[in-house]
Design brief:
Largest sheet: 7 strands, mixed
Number of helices: 38
Structural class: mainly alpha
Strand content: 5-15%
Strand order of the largest sheet: 3-2-1-4-5-7-6
Radius of gyration: 32 Å
Shape: globular
Length: about 800
């Protein structure tokens, strides 16, 4: 055991190595000294510092903990340990040790500074502010503390104080690049654009490789609609820092808004590779809505597959890009072409999509994620289904379907998702009935059931509609077949059981309400598989302020513990979205249809959400419950009432003062094509049974002039049974105009905050009406819609606030 310490010359050489940045030499000597004299703290301290600089934070933690054990009263040792915890992301531990260091040495400005940084990262800006002030107490000209305190003031909205702090730091250190940059950010917040530009350029002049200053200058030019200049700045920042995620996001967003979707896709694909955040994935989906692929791309196929299955956004927004990309795979294209030329009768020539296709994962994702809004693919899958039915009838008792099983499982799931909307010839219907009866007989006889028979029936009828369907759950099938059984038997049985546990809040006696209720009991709408994670990390007031930054929005108290009503929740997408966005809220979700509510409740339970109460009620009767709400959401509901404005007034009556209301109404102008179809259906006396809807869709798709009804037959709603019924066969529909909405808002003291609409449309509107930067002038919007009749094809969706 060594009883003496290292020589003074060794310690002097060690310190000289470190101070002269000869870190390799310092590391070797520190190791040597600590091995010979493990109880000497100085070598451990240098070792910890060198390891931190080399990125070995775990090793640095061991070294710095050793120093603290050997010198527990050394404030610098405690400070170094704090820095190590901070580098490891252990912020709570870092806070403790910074405070311990300060307790030993209250006049330790660096410790106060880093404690402030840690508290800021922990989301405690007020505490961070106090730490920075403490640092300045002991060192008034501590420029880093002045800069960081300025950042806190800016974050808290005290822009004037922030400017003064940055300017003081610059006065002390004129070449302090970060202060010039942050001053520019604050001046931009104050709309002092010329001064902000000058500050950014000063920062760049001082340090041309300071990527953040180039990025911030780009954001300024972006805000000023100087898009070419903004792109130059963004790309310069990315040359300096290729993994600059925030810069990639802003560049992609800007390129999309100015209509360069191809370049936007390249940028956002890079962003996904580097940092696949929720925001990046959402922007990727926004880009896909505005672009058509021209060649097969395996990497984009992988991204599109993930976008469909996670999902990254609404599946319908990914769909068209995914469909077109699928058709560009040479193997799938050949299979598709085979059917376009004429379906072969010889089984040996029949070309089902194979698992070894490069597009097989994308094809599977398309089939199981949502309705397929593509005429060509619908015809293809319809023919495949019929051929599979014919093959099944010829297989006898053969249990497997070989290489086609995976595809047929996915096809069965698609048929269930679209609620069996594919057209059937009379002969096909007869064959499907034969197959169904054969399966029903096998179920009642407790026989072993061929996979092909079960799948072929599942492509035409929901399996839960068969007596003794639970017997299929006892069969030994592949995981793909089990997925079909889960979808078509287990989940519907769960929904049936849940109905008994959903309360009825009000009576339903309005005749139109009863008629609408009956429609949705037959076809819960919409049938969906998964929804994107729309979780909002911000307070709801902050969320609204960010979404509508220039609107005259009055905060809802502290934005917490809000009472929320979703009036007409359907199958739960809307209520689940609310629970993700309006944090810590208590949500009541009501609907007329018990079938829709059961679907919604099942999905909510599956997602582990426990903040939503579902109940059956008529919104016209909700006032009788005595409840009032901070937020009411009712999108796509009121226009199905006998008197929509009466329903709107009923909701206004239970909205608290300053309460928010999000609404969605059909546009008279945007739905002209749909009205044409609805009128034809009425004139021709077309019924609304499942077969009537199938047949009439087939008729529309076969017309010689389909362009006359393009907006009725091209949207995703045309490609599933419940959605198609809602689109053109609904028993009750009203349409609105913006002047009608504006009049109601004025008469009921409701403040219009803005439309929930694509960014590209908002950008076009602002270019048309630059004197309405908040985009809240409904008179202007009425003019804009007249000039662009299809602006609101997916409804007027907007937010208002009760005055």
């Amino acid at each position: 055991m060594h009883t003496q310490g290292p020589s003074q010359s060794d310690l002097t050489v060690l310190l000289d190595h470190y101070q002269s940045t000869r870190y390799k030499d310092a590391h070797e000597l520190a190791i040597s000294i600590t091995e010979r004299y493990p109880d000497h703290p100085f070598a451990w301290k240098i070792l910890g510092a060198v390891l931190i600089l080399g990125g070995n934070t775990s090793g640095a933690l061991i070294a710095n903990e050793m120093v603290v054990n050997l010198s527990p009263r050394d404030p610098e040792a405690l400070y170094n340990l704090s820095n190590t915890f901070k580098a490891l992301g252990k912020l709570e531990d870092a806070e403790i040790w910074y405070r311990n260091s300060i307790a030993l040495k209250p006049d330790f400005p660096e410790a106060h500074l880093n404690l402030g940084l840690t508290l800021h990262e922990l989301g405690r800006p007020q505490d961070a502010e106090l730490s920075y002030k403490n640092a300045l107490t002991f060192r008034p000209e501590f420029i880093q503390a002045l800069n960081n305190l300025g950042n806190i003031k800016r974050e808290l909205g005290s822009y004037g104080e922030a400017v003064a702090l940055y300017q003081k730091a610059i006065e002390i250190a004129p070449k302090y690049v970060e202060a010039h940059n942050n001053l520019g950010v604050t001046l931009q917040k104050l709309k002092k654009f010329g001064d902000a530009e000058e500050s950014y350029k000063q920062a760049i002049a001082l340090s041309s490789e300071f990527a953040e200053a180039h990025f911030n200058l780009g954001t300024l030019f972006y805000e000023l609609a100087r898009f070419a200049d903004a792109e130059i700045c963004y790309r310069h920042a990315l040359r300096l820092r290729p993994d600059y995620a925030e810069c990639l996001y802003n560049l992609g967003l800007m390129l999309l808004e100015i209509g360069d979707a191809t370049s936007a896709l390249e940028v956002i694909a890079d962003l996904i590779r580097i940092k696949p955040t929720k925001e990046a994935k959402s922007l990727f989906v926004d880009v896909l809505k505005n672009i058509k692929p021209t060649s097969w791309d395996t990497e984009l196929s992988i991204m599109a597959t993930s976008a469909l299955l996670e999902p990254w956004g609404r599946v319908s927004d990914v769909g068209n890009f995914a469909f077109q990309l699928l058709k560009l795979d040479s193997d799938f294209k050949q299979s598709l072409h085979q059917f376009q030329e004429g379906m072969p009768e010889d089984f040996d020539e029949f070309n089902f999509p194979k698992k070894n296709y490069i597009s097989s994962s994308l094809l599977n994702a398309i089939l199981i994620s949502g309705p397929i809004a593509d005429r060509e693919l619908e015809q293809y899958f319809t023919k495949l289904r019929y051929k599979f039915l014919k093959i099944t009838n010829s297989l006898g008792t053969i249990r497997t379907v070989d290489d086609t099983e995976n595809f047929c499982c996915a096809l069965a799931q698609q048929c269930f998702i679209n609620e069996y909307i594919y057209y059937q010839t009379p002969e096909e219907t007869k064959l499907s009935i034969v197959a169904r009866d054969r399966l029903a007989k096998a179920l009642n006889g407790d026989e072993e059931i061929p996979a092909s028979l079960m799948l072929s029936v599942a492509c035409y009828y929901p399996l839960h509609s068969l007596d003794n369907c639970e017997a299929l759950l006892k069969q030994n099938y592949s995981k793909e077949l089990v997925s079909v059984l889960k979808q078509q038997i287990q989940e519907p049985l769960v929904e049936f059981a849940l109905k008994a546990h959903i309360p009825k809040l009000t009576r339903i006696d309005n005749q139109v309400s009863l008629t609408v209720q009956n429609q949705y009991e037959e076809n819960p709408y919409p049938r969906w598989v998964s929804v994107p994670n729309a979780s909002n990390s911000k307070n709801y007031n902050s969320f609204i302020s960010r979404k509508f930054p220039l609107a005259d929005f009055k905060p809802l108290g502290n934005g917490q513990a809000l009472e929320v009503l979703v009036a007409g929740c359907g199958t739960g997408q809307h209520s689940i979205n609310c629970s993700q966005i309006i944090k810590d809220s208590k949500i009541l979700a009501i609907d007329l249809s018990m079938a829709s509510l059961a679907y919604a409740k099942r999905k909510t339970i599956e997602m582990g959400i426990d903040t939503i109460d579902y109940a059956q009620a008529d919104l016209l009767q909700l006032a009788s419950t005595g409840r009032t709400f901070d937020v009411i959401e009712s999108v796509g509901v009121l226009h199905h009432l006998d008197q929509p404005f009466e329903g709107w007034e009923a909701l206004v009556s239970i909205l608290k003062p300053k309460g928010l209301m999000r609404l969605g109404f059909y546009s008279e102008l945007a739905r002209k094509d749909i009205v044409k179809v609805r009128n034809l259906i009425s004139q021709d006396g077309i019924g609304s049974s499942l077969q009537d809807i199938r047949n009439y869709r087939h008729h529309l798709l076969g017309l010689n002039n389909p362009e006359d009804f393009v907006f009725a037959t091209s949207g995703v709603d045309f490609f599933s049974m419940s959605a198609c019924r809602d689109l053109i066969f609904h028993v009750q529909e009203h349409r609105m105009q913006l002047d009608m909405i504006a009049k109601f808002l004025k008469n009921h003291q409701l403040q219009f905050l803005g439309f929930d609409i694509d960014r590209s449309i908002i950008q076009s509107y602002k270019l048309r009406f630059p004197d309405d930067p908040a985009a809240t002038n409904l008179t202007y919007w009425h003019i804009f819609e007249q000039e662009n009749p299809h602006t609101f094809t997916s409804m007027y969706q907007f937010l208002v606030q009760k005055r």
